[in-house]
Design brief:
This protein has helices at residues 10-35, 39-56, 72-84, 89-114, 119-125, 128-150, 154-170, 174-177, 179-193, 227-259, 263-285, 295-304, 309-324, 326-333, 337-363, 369-388, 402-416, 422-431; strands at 65-67, 291-293, 393-395, 398-400. With 432 residues, it is mostly helical. Helix 3 packs antiparallel against helix 4.
């Protein structure tokens, strides 16, 4: 792993930052589009969130923070409920942002409570037996989503994957490090030759525009305060907040395994959770979608072996610049979704590999029945729900997604199944 890229040429470092930008770009746009929130505001606050997160975590964690998929279903439910109650759309979106605000507050409270827990208890609650399969199904879940976009132009997507694979396995030096950019370039050329790039959209957007839209700020709910709607908002986001925190912990474990640095100890969960909560609150107050650590960056780090956090800060600055320049955003946005999906497929495969390595490193050469049982339970639950109940488990008027339901089951199994000490048992048998 390369932890310092200062010796590399500036062009290479910008290329590495651009790779991460491509990894998170479509995901950053997807959530606000689905919710109906302003895209450029969410782009701006994803960049700001990343810079703030790095500031409060000593600039050590190579993570990018962007729009969260974990609480998306709950936020959609809040908006639909508000509209059904006759609340105007702009105020309904303010309730969505207020729900994000509550998520951020819960993060902050959880971050302060973590400091009261002994380290061995945290390690017990979020052991590798839980983190490994959770990381694996995170990769599988995003992989299935990327496959849908990939099929929109599978020829260009396949060319992008082949070009990136050739660069990764057959080239050396800097060309190998920027293999993702090579794959993107090959895919874009293939899509352009097939006429699948809408260049005519370019002239419809200005060079400069403010990313701020003040219509959806969280505390605008005071203009149309509905106590029942407020109750629905709070009740909906509280359970999802704890699941999101669990995903945050899984991301910290995953990046720790990839970079061989134990960030739980080097930085501390109290600081990472609280910093993430602060960024969620800031985004919600100004009407942007909530932010969380993006697993794609872990997959990309696993692929090119570059884990310098400065690269992620460069990516954040690029995203902020794009939020002020709609014309530049369109230039990046005309890259076909199939090409971006092809690249993300590679990264999610790498995320699944990180999950497997997390299990192997936690267990050593011998697998324990406890780990096997927890892994089968989590992955089995996810596959069953994804196959037969893709919308998730109904809870009241909303749904618990297969990913969230699998995490809850894994947490229960991890707590319920005793953690036997194999060495202690062996010694006890010998003494007997």
């Amino acid at each position: 792993m390369i932890h310092n890229t200062q010796h590399m040429p500036a062009a290479v470092r910008y290329g590495l930052a651009f790779q991460h930008l491509m990894a998170v770009f479509l995901g950053t746009l997807f959530v606000p589009i689905v919710l109906g929130l302003p895209i450029y505001t969410s782009m701006f606050f994803s960049g700001v969130a990343t810079l703030l997160f790095h500031y409060f975590t000593y600039g050590k964690l190579p993570l990018y923070l962007s729009t969260s998929f974990t609480v998306l279903a709950g936020l959609i439910f809040i908006r639909q409920t508000a509209l059904a109650r006759g609340i105007p759309n702009d105020i309904a979106l303010c309730y969505v942002c207020f729900g994000s605000f509550i998520v951020g507050v819960i993060y902050m409270i959880a971050g302060q409570l973590v400091r009261l827990l002994p380290r061995h208890l945290i390690n017990r609650l979020f052991s590798t037996a839980l983190a490994g399969p959770i990381i694996i199904i995170l990769g599988i879940d995003m992989l299935t989503t990327s496959t849908l976009s990939f099929m929109s132009d599978w020829i260009a997507g396949s060319i992008a994957i082949i070009a990136a694979a050739i660069a990764q396995f057959f080239l050396r030096g800097m060309s190998r490090i920027i293999s993702i950019n090579i794959g993107i370039a090959a895919g874009v050329i293939a899509a352009a030759l097939r006429g699948n790039i809408p260049i005519d959209m370019y002239d419809q957007f200005p060079w400069m525009a403010s990313p701020f839209k003040y219509d959806f700020m969280a505390f605008r709910i005071l203009e149309h305060l509905d106590w029942e709607m407020l109750r629905v908002t709070v009740v909906t986001v509280i359970p999802l907040s704890f699941i999101a925190i669990g995903e945050h912990l899984s991301d910290i474990i995953a990046i720790s395994r990839s970079t061989q640095v134990e960030y739980m100890h080097a930085v501390g969960l109290r600081r990472t959770i609280s910093a993430n909560g602060l960024t969620i609150i800031l985004a919600a107050v100004f009407g942007a979608s909530p932010n969380t650590a993006y697993t794609q960056t872990t997959g990309l780090i696993e692929l090119n072996k570059i884990c310098d956090a400065r690269i992620l800060r460069m990516t954040a600055i690029m995203m902020i610049v794009l939020s002020f320049c709609p014309k530049l955003t369109i230039i990046v946005g005309i890259i076909p979704p199939a090409v971006i999906a092809a690249i993300t497929i590679i990264m999610y495969l790498m995320v699944m590999l990180v999950g497997w390595r997390t299990l192997r490193q936690g267990e050593g050469k011998r697998w324990r029945k406890r780990t096997i049982g927890i892994s089968i339970g989590i992955i089995g639950m996810y596959i069953i729900l994804k196959t037969f109940c893709n919308a998730g488990i109904p809870i009241g008027s909303t749904y618990l997604s297969p990913l969230n339901a699998s995490f809850i089951l894994g947490l229960i199994l991890n707590i319920a199944i005793p953690q036997n000490n194999e060495k202690g048992k062996k010694e006890h048998t010998e003494n007997t």
